[in-house]
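Query structure, 186 tokens:
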């Protein structure tokens, strides 16, 4: 039997950013869809980023909806615009962010980049999720902006994992978008 829970949340991200979140969960799914058939959908946007900046955004938290443990192997962008170059993904402990986990950040005043550099991280490869476990830690995707072209977009977070001796890749639908700042914005 399939249950669906739909939650929509819109959160403001300071300094010219925005977030929309839509999470759909499907229980008891396996064979390449351990994170649910609907996965998660998030749109995160920023407008104050320039060529040469590093930007970071939080990936949807994988939720192992299957009845067997899995091991993460890779996390990355499924597709990105030319000029929005994927660098890497790292796992951070949620507890290491006492003031709250930033959803995104970057730019000349890259407080998120500096904050992440001061935190202990671990590689994605080897991270285990037990059956039914929602990942409590957070994954940040790191991009470098190499163009002044706008808009730039990364869509889909591809998560490679191993389960029951087989390797799978599942894409969680998430969108990260860089846009021009609105007229009159600084």
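Result returned for the query:
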């Amino acid at each position: 039997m399939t249950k669906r829970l739909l939650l929509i949340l819109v959160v403001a991200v300071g300094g010219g950013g925005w977030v929309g979140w839509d999470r759909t969960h499907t229980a008891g799914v396996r064979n390449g869809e351990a994170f649910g058939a609907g996965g998660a959908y998030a749109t995160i946007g920023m407008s104050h980023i320039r060529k040469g900046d590093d930007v970071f955004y939080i990936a949807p938290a994988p939720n192992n909806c299957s009845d067997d443990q899995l091991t993460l192997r890779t996390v990355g962008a499924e597709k990105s615009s030319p000029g929005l170059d994927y660098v890497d993904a790292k796992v951070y402990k949620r507890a290491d962010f006492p003031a709250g986990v930033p959803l995104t950040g970057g730019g000349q005043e890259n407080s998120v980049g500096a904050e992440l550099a001061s935190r202990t991280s671990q590689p994605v490869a080897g991270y285990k999720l037990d059956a039914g476990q929602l990942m409590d830690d957070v994954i940040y995707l790191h991009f470098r902006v190499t163009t002044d072209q706008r808009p730039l977009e990364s869509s889909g977070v591809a998560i490679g994992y191993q389960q029951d001796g087989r390797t799978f890749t599942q894409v969680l639908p998430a969108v990260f978008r860089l846009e021009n700042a609105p007229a009159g914005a600084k």
